[in-house]
Amino acid sequence: MSSKGKVVCVTGGSGYIGSWLVHLLLDRGYTVHATVKDLQDERETKHLLALEAADSSLRLFQIDLLDYDSIAAAITGTVGVFHLASPNIIDRVQDPERELVEPAVMGTKNVLAAAKQFGIQRVVVTSSTSSITPSPSWPADVVKGEDCWADVEYCKQKGLWYSLSKTLAEKAAWEFAKDRDLDVVVVNPGFVFGPILPPTLNASMSVLFRLLQGSTETYPDFYMGCVHVKDVALAHILVYENTCAVGRHLCVEAVSHYGDFAAIVAELHPEYNVPRFPKETQPGLLRAKNAAKKLMDLGLEFIPIEQIIEDSIESLKRHGFVS
Ligand SMILES: NC(=O)c1ccc[n+]([C@@H]2O[C@H](COP(=O)([O-])OP(=O)(O)OC[C@H]3O[C@@H](n4cnc5c(N)ncnc54)[C@H](OP(=O)(O)O)[C@@H]3O)[C@@H](O)[C@H]2O)c1
Predict the structure, then answer these.
(1) Distance in Å, CA 271 to ligand 1 centroid
(2) CATH number at residue 193
(3) pLDDT of 89
């Protein structure tokens, strides 16, 4: 697919991953409708307006995931949609249904309904490994991948509200695609790290920030590998442009344990207070290199973990989050 002059919409364009996706799309000649939650808040807009080609090829729209009309206004006039906007909170929440599940699920339904209304060719939905990995009955000798689904009841029992929100939202997307005959393709990234474009810290970069401060949290039900933010953005473009891409796409540089990640951070950066973890921080998770085979077959060469860590820490320093 040639991108020149094509107009696409990125929901959550102001976010950590969204702003990288907007950046790469503009570089490739797309015109982008990017959505933000509050057009008056410079923290959501300034880094986008500073991107090269923003003057000529970027339009910002204010949306609320629960407000269909605001979403429809951002999607009108586009041919493709990347749906990233979703609350990304993995810490404790007061009201999980209102803060996480409802905006994730209703937002996805609203975006897909608007895409259908305006004859969008293809919608890329950003799901997560969180809709894969809280799956305790998965056999320990089989690598978790696109064919593994998070266990909804387990998520509810353990209060894994973010995982629940991503799982129900992805399920809603597949149901809509089937019932309403819409071309939907899904990317399932692991923990995303790498250079930060917005001025604020998102949930995954906060995990690294806290690790550098000595946090002993191991995310037993969440982690199954990490990925560079630029690779996640590129994965979205690859599955959009390659019509042969179908279904879910695991997006991690390897299936691995959080302790593996922390050990490499500690080795590369002994100046920080990174704790030592036991070998198995994700009980029952089988490690695997080259697990994201579907994306690799589309041409994605994953940035290695050492580079992911170096780029992330350099960015945390540049933004003044760590010294
Ligand atoms: N980061 C990761 O490790 C990771 C891994 C797997 C999947 N994901 C998924 O990737 C997507 C982006 O995540 P991220 O890390 O880039 O998070 P982020 O920086 O927090 O970005 C989330 C985006 O969604 C928007 N948003 C949230 N609630 C909204 C609402 N009610 N109405 C309108 N917009 C709303 C935010 O708008 P504002 O900026 O205006 O608040 C922001 O643009 C999410 O779907 C997340 O679940 C992330």
Answers:
(1) 31
(2) 3.40.50.720
(3) 82
